[in-house]
Design goal:
Strand content: 5-15%
Order of helices and strands: EHEHHHHEHEHHHEH
Radius of gyration: 16 Å
Number of strands: 5
Shape: globular
Helix content: 55-70%
CATH topology: Rossmann fold
Distance between the termini: 13 Å
Bound molecules: adenosine monophosphate
Oligomer: single chain
CATH architecture: 3-Layer(aba) Sandwich
Structural class: alpha/beta
CATH class: Alpha Beta
Number of domains: 1
């Protein structure tokens, strides 16, 4: 049985950065649905064309579409042999239920990188990414509260939730995250 993990956190929590460190440390495949969708947009594929306007507005791509790309990625040989860290997925309870069926007993840990709304808003304003318009930031945070935050309880009910304080420098958080994961695995 291989090691499967997911990382949850608001946009701007440092989730993507920490996911890279975690994947390296535990030698699992880092799967970011945001990165996969951005590549599809750049390549101008059918999926990219469908997703672009939703992403620009800070909305959520439909569960069916995202579940499809994740199912395809999880079936690949590298993931089957090394395990995975999902970053940015699941984002809804519907996606979490599908994930549970896809990976059976391989999901060992759900990390919630906890940073407050006030703090992430400041961070996102100062990082100035192209898709960080004030409207898109607000929409993404709103959808996180309504659609994604119920997953914290959902994963707690599954008995695999690990909450980690995301405040501090990248290396402070990195150390904390690795220590906590080791303790919980
Ligand atoms: P991220 O890089 O994880 O912030 O993702 C960027 C954008 O891609 C999000 O704002 C969504 O529009 C879309 N996206 C990424 N992952 C998902 C997902 N699991 N469900 C729905 N939409 C997603």
């Amino acid at each position: 049985m291989t090691l499967g993990m997911v990382i949850l956190g608001r946009q701007g929590s440092g989730k993507g950065t920490q996911a890279v460190h975690i994947a390296k440390r535990f030698e699992v495949v880092h799967i970011s649905t945001g990165d996969m969708l951005r590549s599809a947009v750049e390549e101008g594929t059918e999926l990219g064309l469908q997703a672009k306007s939703i992403m620009d507005a800070g909305g959520l791509v439909t569960d069916d579409v995202v579940n499809g790309i994740v199912a395809e990625r999880l079936a690949k040989e590298d993931v089957r042999s090394s395990g995975f860290l999902l970053d940015g997925y699941p984002r809804t309870v519907g996606q979490a239920s599908v994930l549970k069926q896809l990976v059976e007993g391989n999901l060992k840990l759900a990390i919630n990188l906890d940073v407050s709304i006030e703090e992430v808003t400041q961070r996102m304003i100062s990082r100035g990414r192209e898709d960080d318009t004030p409207e898109a930031i607000a929409r993404r945070l709103e959808l996180y509260e309504s659609e994604t935050s119920p997953l914290i309880q959902w994963f707690d009910d599954e008995g695999i939730l690990c909450v980690i304080n995301g405040l501090g420098t990248e290396s402070e958080v990195h150390k904390r995250v690795i220590d906590e994961i080791e303790k919980n695995l």
